[in-house]
Design brief:
The protein has 76 residues and is mostly helical. It has four helices and no strands. The termini are far apart.
């Protein structure tokens, strides 16, 4: 297993890390590993081009004007 050394970490940041580790009942090293894994395992957000057409099957048989009128009427 690899070892990671972090130099010049601000004291305030280390104190926050230490407090978070305590709250999660982990060591500082375990908390760093957990935070890094969560940050790096998160999938990249989709770009607007990736979203193009997403969900269009949900709206296939819906008239937008009628839908908007129904939604507005629900708030009156």
């Amino acid at each position: 297993m690899a070892t990671l050394n972090v130099k010049n970490m601000p004291d305030a940041l280390y104190e926050k890390l230490k407090a978070r580790a305590k709250q999660e009942r982990r060591s500082v090293a375990q908390e760093v590993t957990s935070l890094l894994a969560a940050a790096l395992d998160t999938p990249a957000p989709l770009s607007i081009m990736d979203l193009k057409g997403l969900g269009k099957d949900l709206w296939q048989d819906v008239d937008p004007a009628v839908h908007i009128e129904t939604e507005r009427a629900a708030w009156d």
